[in-house]
Amino acid sequence: MAGRRSFDPWAEGFPWRELFEQAYGLRGERSGPLVAGVGVPVDIAELEDAYLIYAVIPGVEPAAMDLVVEDDRVVLRGEVREPSVDGQWISRERRFGRFQRTIDLPSPVDPERAEARYENGILVVRLPKVAPGRVRRIPVKGS
What we know:
Oligomer: single chain
Order of helices and strands: HEEEEEEE
Strand content: 25-35%
Shape: elongated
Radius of gyration: 22 Å
Largest sheet: 4 strands, antiparallel
Distance between the termini: 93 Å
């Protein structure tokens, strides 16, 4: 069938990038090479009083990570530096460069009580939930 063009999903204008970004929580700056959300897999657990986030980020110094918490959103940024080798690579499977991962939580958290630790290439973040508002009856006084 001469002249018939095959379907190319990357060239047909389908919003692959947007779907990819939504699926992996990738948002924000796009300048330079990104390890992006795919390079930072996370597990999120909900406890009665907090959320726990486990982010797999091997090869990054804790001081090179930027962790920002606001309301119900967590943004994790950093950079995986490429090692220098006096020779030639035979195989390369790891990714290097800046990364950013944005995580939306189901409810607001208290950033003042948040804790983070980095052990064996895994960042563990504990985010206490905001205590539900208390109801207080206020008496109305007359003059």
